[in-house]
Amino acid sequence: MTGPTVRIAALHPSCTVLGPGRRFVVWVQGCPLNCRDCVSPQWIPARGGRVVPVAELADRIIAEAADGLTLSGGEPFAQADALVRLVETVRRRRDLSVLSYSGYTIEHLRRHGTPDQHRLLDRLDLLIDGPYRPDRHADLLWRGSDNQRIHRLTDRHADLPGAAGPGAGLQFEVGADGSLRWMGVPPVPGFRRRLEQAMGSP
Ligand code: SF4
Protein backbone atom coordinates (compact mmCIF):
# COMPACT_ATOMS: atom_id res chain seq x y z
CA MET A 1 0.00 0.00 0.00
CA THR A 2 1.59 3.30 -1.03
CA GLY A 3 0.77 6.82 0.15
CA PRO A 4 -1.03 7.93 3.31
CA THR A 5 -3.60 5.63 4.86
CA VAL A 6 -6.46 5.93 7.33
CA ARG A 7 -7.78 3.23 9.68
CA ILE A 8 -11.54 3.03 9.32
CA ALA A 9 -14.28 1.18 11.18
CA ALA A 10 -17.15 1.74 8.74
CA LEU A 11 -18.33 3.83 5.80
CA HIS A 12 -21.71 4.90 4.48
CA PRO A 13 -22.20 6.72 1.19
CA SER A 14 -25.55 8.33 1.88
CA CYS A 15 -26.51 9.31 5.42
CA THR A 16 -29.13 11.97 6.16
CA VAL A 17 -29.00 12.01 9.97
CA LEU A 18 -25.40 13.02 10.77
CA GLY A 19 -25.12 16.54 9.41
CA PRO A 20 -26.84 18.75 6.83
CA GLY A 21 -28.04 17.16 3.59
CA ARG A 22 -26.97 13.79 2.27
CA ARG A 23 -23.49 12.93 3.51
CA PHE A 24 -20.77 10.36 3.01
CA VAL A 25 -19.80 9.20 6.52
CA VAL A 26 -16.39 7.86 7.53
CA TRP A 27 -16.27 6.28 11.00
CA VAL A 28 -12.62 5.92 11.96
CA GLN A 29 -11.29 3.11 14.12
CA GLY A 30 -9.69 3.98 17.47
CA CYS A 31 -10.44 6.46 20.24
CA PRO A 32 -7.93 7.29 23.01
CA LEU A 33 -10.65 8.80 25.24
CA ASN A 34 -12.06 5.35 26.04
CA CYS A 35 -15.28 6.60 27.70
CA ARG A 36 -17.05 4.06 29.89
CA ASP A 37 -20.43 4.68 28.23
CA CYS A 38 -19.23 4.91 24.62
CA VAL A 39 -22.03 4.17 22.14
CA SER A 40 -19.58 2.41 19.82
CA PRO A 41 -17.15 0.54 22.12
CA GLN A 42 -16.10 -1.78 19.30
CA TRP A 43 -14.49 1.22 17.61
CA ILE A 44 -12.35 2.28 20.61
CA PRO A 45 -9.35 -0.08 20.05
CA ALA A 46 -6.62 1.52 17.96
CA ARG A 47 -6.15 -1.80 16.19
CA GLY A 48 -8.91 -3.43 14.18
CA GLY A 49 -11.08 -1.98 11.48
CA ARG A 50 -9.24 -1.80 8.17
CA VAL A 51 -6.54 0.37 6.74
CA VAL A 52 -7.35 2.04 3.42
CA PRO A 53 -5.33 4.38 1.22
CA VAL A 54 -6.50 8.00 1.48
CA ALA A 55 -6.49 8.32 -2.33
CA GLU A 56 -8.80 5.31 -2.71
CA LEU A 57 -11.22 6.61 -0.08
CA ALA A 58 -11.22 10.07 -1.69
CA ASP A 59 -12.13 8.51 -5.07
CA ARG A 60 -15.05 6.74 -3.46
CA ILE A 61 -16.31 9.90 -1.74
CA ILE A 62 -16.15 11.86 -5.00
CA ALA A 63 -17.96 9.08 -6.89
CA GLU A 64 -20.92 9.15 -4.48
CA ALA A 65 -21.56 12.87 -5.11
CA ALA A 66 -22.95 13.48 -1.63
CA ASP A 67 -23.59 17.00 -0.29
CA GLY A 68 -20.93 16.64 2.35
CA LEU A 69 -18.50 14.49 4.29
CA THR A 70 -18.96 13.61 7.97
CA LEU A 71 -16.05 12.27 10.04
CA SER A 72 -17.00 10.28 13.10
CA GLY A 73 -15.74 7.29 14.99
CA GLY A 74 -13.80 6.45 17.01
CA GLU A 75 -11.93 9.72 17.30
CA PRO A 76 -11.24 11.58 14.05
CA PHE A 77 -8.66 13.84 15.69
CA ALA A 78 -6.57 10.78 16.61
CA GLN A 79 -5.92 10.43 12.86
CA ALA A 80 -5.76 14.12 12.08
CA ASP A 81 -2.90 13.98 9.57
CA ALA A 82 -4.59 11.30 7.44
CA LEU A 83 -7.94 13.13 7.55
CA VAL A 84 -6.37 16.47 6.57
CA ARG A 85 -4.96 14.67 3.52
CA LEU A 86 -8.36 13.12 2.83
CA VAL A 87 -10.20 16.46 3.01
CA GLU A 88 -7.58 18.18 0.85
CA THR A 89 -7.66 15.39 -1.75
CA VAL A 90 -11.46 15.49 -1.96
CA ARG A 91 -11.64 19.28 -2.08
CA ARG A 92 -9.16 19.50 -4.95
CA ARG A 93 -11.96 17.90 -6.98
CA ARG A 94 -15.17 19.01 -5.19
CA ASP A 95 -15.73 21.70 -2.61
CA LEU A 96 -17.62 19.49 -0.17
CA SER A 97 -18.92 20.55 3.22
CA VAL A 98 -16.94 18.79 5.98
CA LEU A 99 -18.27 18.08 9.49
CA SER A 100 -16.33 16.24 12.17
CA TYR A 101 -17.33 14.85 15.51
CA SER A 102 -14.75 14.82 18.32
CA GLY A 103 -14.73 13.64 21.90
CA TYR A 104 -12.36 16.54 22.62
CA THR A 105 -13.80 20.00 23.19
CA ILE A 106 -12.88 22.76 20.78
CA GLU A 107 -11.13 24.58 23.63
CA HIS A 108 -8.94 21.54 24.29
CA LEU A 109 -8.10 21.15 20.61
CA ARG A 110 -7.20 24.83 20.25
CA ARG A 111 -5.08 24.99 23.42
CA HIS A 112 -3.52 21.54 23.51
CA GLY A 113 -3.98 20.12 20.02
CA THR A 114 -1.09 19.02 17.84
CA PRO A 115 -0.24 20.92 14.64
CA ASP A 116 -2.08 18.22 12.64
CA GLN A 117 -5.16 18.60 14.85
CA HIS A 118 -5.09 22.37 14.28
CA ARG A 119 -4.84 21.78 10.53
CA LEU A 120 -7.88 19.49 10.63
CA LEU A 121 -9.85 22.03 12.67
CA ASP A 122 -8.94 24.69 10.08
CA ARG A 123 -10.48 22.59 7.31
CA LEU A 124 -13.87 21.92 8.94
CA ASP A 125 -17.13 23.72 8.31
CA LEU A 126 -18.75 22.21 11.39
CA LEU A 127 -17.40 20.59 14.55
CA ILE A 128 -19.59 18.72 17.02
CA ASP A 129 -17.53 18.37 20.18
CA GLY A 130 -17.61 16.39 23.39
CA PRO A 131 -18.29 12.71 24.05
CA TYR A 132 -21.79 11.26 24.23
CA ARG A 133 -22.80 11.25 27.92
CA PRO A 134 -25.87 9.14 28.80
CA ASP A 135 -26.29 11.05 32.09
CA ARG A 136 -26.90 14.20 30.00
CA HIS A 137 -28.99 12.52 27.30
CA ALA A 138 -31.03 14.92 25.15
CA ASP A 139 -32.78 14.79 21.78
CA LEU A 140 -30.78 17.47 19.97
CA LEU A 141 -29.87 18.09 16.36
CA TRP A 142 -27.11 15.53 15.44
CA ARG A 143 -26.19 15.13 19.13
CA GLY A 144 -27.26 12.75 21.84
CA SER A 145 -26.31 14.67 24.99
CA ASP A 146 -26.45 18.33 25.97
CA ASN A 147 -22.70 18.67 26.63
CA GLN A 148 -22.15 18.31 22.88
CA ARG A 149 -22.08 21.55 20.88
CA ILE A 150 -22.29 22.45 17.19
CA HIS A 151 -19.56 24.91 16.18
CA ARG A 152 -19.92 26.69 12.83
CA LEU A 153 -16.30 27.21 11.76
CA THR A 154 -17.10 28.75 8.35
CA ASP A 155 -20.06 30.55 6.76
CA ARG A 156 -21.02 27.56 4.64
CA HIS A 157 -23.93 26.53 6.86
CA ALA A 158 -25.09 29.96 8.00
CA ASP A 159 -28.69 28.83 7.37
CA LEU A 160 -28.54 25.86 9.73
CA PRO A 161 -31.54 25.34 11.99
CA GLY A 162 -30.94 26.42 15.57
CA ALA A 163 -28.62 24.17 17.52
CA ALA A 164 -31.45 23.62 20.00
CA GLY A 165 -33.58 22.06 17.25
CA PRO A 166 -34.90 18.52 17.66
CA GLY A 167 -32.90 15.43 16.79
CA ALA A 168 -32.56 14.29 13.17
CA GLY A 169 -33.84 10.78 13.94
CA LEU A 170 -32.33 7.48 12.90
CA GLN A 171 -31.64 5.89 9.53
CA PHE A 172 -32.28 2.13 9.29
CA GLU A 173 -31.23 -0.19 6.50
CA VAL A 174 -31.65 -3.89 5.88
CA GLY A 175 -28.65 -5.55 4.19
CA ALA A 176 -28.85 -8.18 1.45
CA ASP A 177 -28.19 -10.81 4.14
CA GLY A 178 -31.10 -9.56 6.26
CA SER A 179 -28.87 -7.76 8.76
CA LEU A 180 -30.19 -4.50 10.21
CA ARG A 181 -28.00 -1.43 10.37
CA TRP A 182 -28.77 1.90 12.00
CA MET A 183 -27.13 5.32 11.93
CA GLY A 184 -27.67 8.45 13.96
CA VAL A 185 -27.44 9.42 17.58
CA PRO A 186 -29.05 7.15 20.19
CA PRO A 187 -32.61 8.27 20.97
CA VAL A 188 -32.41 6.88 24.52
CA PRO A 189 -29.50 5.82 26.77
CA GLY A 190 -28.50 2.19 26.17
CA PHE A 191 -30.19 2.18 22.75
CA ARG A 192 -27.68 -0.13 21.05
CA ARG A 193 -27.93 -2.74 23.82
CA ARG A 194 -31.72 -2.57 23.87
CA LEU A 195 -31.96 -2.90 20.07
CA GLU A 196 -29.60 -5.86 20.02
CA GLN A 197 -31.55 -7.53 22.83
CA ALA A 198 -34.84 -6.93 21.00
CA MET A 199 -33.37 -8.53 17.89
CA GLY A 200 -32.00 -11.48 19.82
CA SER A 201 -28.32 -10.67 19.22
CA PRO A 202 -25.86 -12.28 21.61
S1 SF4 B 1 -15.04 10.15 22.80
FE1 SF4 B 1 -16.83 9.27 21.77
S2 SF4 B 1 -16.01 7.60 20.48
FE2 SF4 B 1 -14.42 8.13 22.00
S3 SF4 B 1 -14.75 6.66 23.66
FE3 SF4 B 1 -15.84 8.58 24.19
S4 SF4 B 1 -17.95 8.25 23.44
FE4 SF4 B 1 -16.62 6.70 22.45
UniProtKB/TrEMBL annotation:
InterPro entries for the chain: Aldolase_TIM (IPR013785), NrdG (IPR012837), Organic_radical-activating (IPR034457), rSAM (IPR007197), rSAM_sf (IPR058240)
Keywords on record: 4Fe-4S, Iron, Iron-sulfur, Metal-binding, S-adenosyl-L-methionine
Domain of life (superkingdom): Bacteria
Cofactors named for this entry: [4Fe-4S] cluster
Protein name in the entry: Radical SAM protein
Provenance organism: Paractinoplanes ovalisporus
Lineage of producing organism: Bacteria, Bacillati, Actinomycetota, Actinomycetes, Micromonosporales
